[in-house]
TrEMBL record:
Similarity comment text for this entry: Belongs to the sigma-70 factor family. ECF subfamily.
UniProt key word rRNA processing: no
The organism's taxonomic lineage, starting at the top: Bacteria, Pseudomonadati, Bacteroidota, Flavobacteriia, Flavobacteriales
InterPro entries: RNA_pol_sigma-70-like (IPR039425), RNA_pol_sigma-70_dom (IPR014284), RNA_pol_sigma70_r2 (IPR007627), RNA_pol_sigma70_r4_t2 (IPR013249), RNA_pol_sigma_r2 (IPR013325), RNA_pol_sigma_r3/r4-like (IPR013324), WH-like_DNA-bd_sf (IPR036388)
Name under which the protein is recorded: Sigma-70 family RNA polymerase sigma factor
Span of domain RNA polymerase sigma factor 70 region 4 type: 132-182
A molecular-function term among this protein's GO annotations: sigma factor activity
Any one of the GO BP annotations: DNA-templated transcription initiation
UniProt keyword annotations, A-Z: DNA-binding, Sigma factor, Transcription, Transcription regulation
Domain RNA polymerase sigma-70 region stretches: 37-105
Pfam families (alphabetical): Sigma70_r2, Sigma70_r4_2
Length: 202
């Protein structure tokens, strides 16, 4: 049976090769699988780290290198029946949590949420809206910021966020509800309807 090219294989199939559980996988194949995973995820992880580490690009790049070292260190912990992207983002989330605890790193985001249609033609109001949104996010506690970033900027589902943050679905919903409520309260002077229209919890 012909072996699939790495680019045709799933993340999970590649990770199994990295783990080297099967004698049929050579060290060269494991290395090639790791290179492919790096190609698929390095840019996405870099974007996530930049958002979570106060836009510190150099530190974010260091974290990308470190997370792939951690991947090798923790490869025996990967469950091939689970999604690789949830597993790697769980590691990334924990790295940011550790950085926050040890160095007081705060999340500072360049908002990527589409501005409301009513502000589309008013550049001044659009800019003021983005500044206010930034302030609202900055004022959140770290664990609330984490679920907000994963949901609205990285577009993970609630179940995926629960897996990534090692929290219950109820906890994720509660944190997300609190985060969006606090931010929409901060933005009400633009339009009171934002409370129900700007962010979708589901």
């Amino acid at each position: 049976m012909k072996r699939l090219h790495h680019k045709q294989q799933s993340d999970e199939e590649l990770m199994v090769q990295v783990m080297g559980h099967h004698a049929s996988f050579s060290a060269k194949q494991a290395e090639a699988a790791l290179v492919e995973l790096h190609r698929r995820y390095s840019k996405k992880l870099l974007g996530y780290f930049i958002k979570m580490l106060n836009k510190d690009v150099d530190l974010a790049q260091d974290f990308v290198q470190e997370i792939f070292l951690k991947l090798m260190e923790k490869k025996h912990l990967f469950d091939p029946d689970k999604k690789f992207y949830s597993w790697i983002f769980a590691i990334a989330s924990n790295m940011c949590k550790t950085a926050y605890r040890h160095h007081g790193k705060t999340v500072s985001l360049h908002p990527e949420i589409n501005h409301p249609q009513g502000l589309a033609e008013n550049l001044v109001e659009k800019r003021l809206f983005l500044i206010a949104l930034q302030e609202g996010i900055d004022n959140l506690e770290h664990h609330h910021k984490t679920v907000f970033v994963l949901r609205y900027l990285e577009h993970f589902s609630l179940n995926e966020i629960a897996e990534i943050t090692e929290s219950s679905l109820g906890t994720v919903k509660s944190r997300l509800f609190y985060a969006t409520k606090k931010i929409t309260d901060h933005l009400k002077h633009f339009d009171p309807r934002f409370e129900t229209t700007l962010f979708k919890l589901n």
